[in-house]
Amino acid sequence: MNLLAAMRYLAALHAHGHFARAAQACHITQPALSNALRALEAEFGVAIVRRGRVFAGFTPEGEQVLQTGLEMLQSEARLRQRLSAQAGQLQGQLRMAAVPTAMPMLLRFASLLRRQHPGLVPVLHAMSSPDIERGLEELSLDLALGYSDRIRRPRTHCAPQYQEHYYLLQAAPNPACVADSLHAAEPLGWAQAAQQPLCLLTPDMHNRQIVERSLLAVGVQVQPAMETNSVQALLQAVGEGQVASIVPGAVLATVRHTPGLRAWPLVEPVVESEVAFLYQQSQQGMPALEAARALMAQAEWQQQCLQHAGALAAAAPAAQA
């Protein structure tokens, strides 16, 4: 039995929670995956998987085997990365995630990292804050970009990157209005923004919770006209002209050059949320993660944060709301 391969199948089952999808992810048939897991159970003399008509989770012994398997796979990846770096070009995957509203910045970061290390393959996922923390804890993620105030586990290290600021985004009555000047509009109070029909992210999203707290601070109970768990769908809804939205600077920057949109910085109160890179302290020394940590300190990335996130710089004046 190939123990590493079996552990890889076990990790895939954990990640996908479904035998067929795990087999597909491993590029093998479902019977082959099931046979490998049964061989793993025979090897250790314990039941690892709870079986029914569908995958029903892991036994307590299976959880122990899974955790050891994840550590083995991480050690293998670390060794391969070190050997490739010694040979002259760092190679391997860097498994990364971001909360949906920070994904534009993670994409920019991954592009810079790939330029410096062409042998690295960033693998990016949009995930909720609890899923990110769980992924880091279980070693299924190497690095994430999310809200530092959501982290509860002491082994997760936070490296602050920027302060998230918020804007009311709306289609302009005059289609000739260009979004390149949208961030230069006069500041607007949260209470005034709430008077617009709003498309917001769904309540399970931390960004939505920030918006709700900010509106409650000015005595407004949010009543969205539309909800979505997709940032792309939210932006499309705003572009249709029937709703407005409240978005952070990193999302606003992605539509900066889209004609027909305008935005106002939200004040009264000014709300800021810290966005940080997150990783397990035990993973320091992983060559791909060390390359990413080095990039965090470089001026080129810090300039990206100033230009595309946080409080966006003003350009030409825009029309008033």
From TrEMBL:
One of its GO terms (molecular function) is DNA-binding transcription factor activity. SUPFAM superfamilies: Periplasmic binding protein-like II, Winged helix' DNA-binding domain. One of its GO terms (cellular component) is cytosol. Keywords: DNA-binding, Transcription, Transcription regulation. Pfam families: HTH_1, LysR_substrate. Residues 1-59 form the HTH lysR-type domain. Belongs to the LysR transcriptional regulatory family. This is LysR family transcriptional regulator. It comes from Comamonas koreensis.
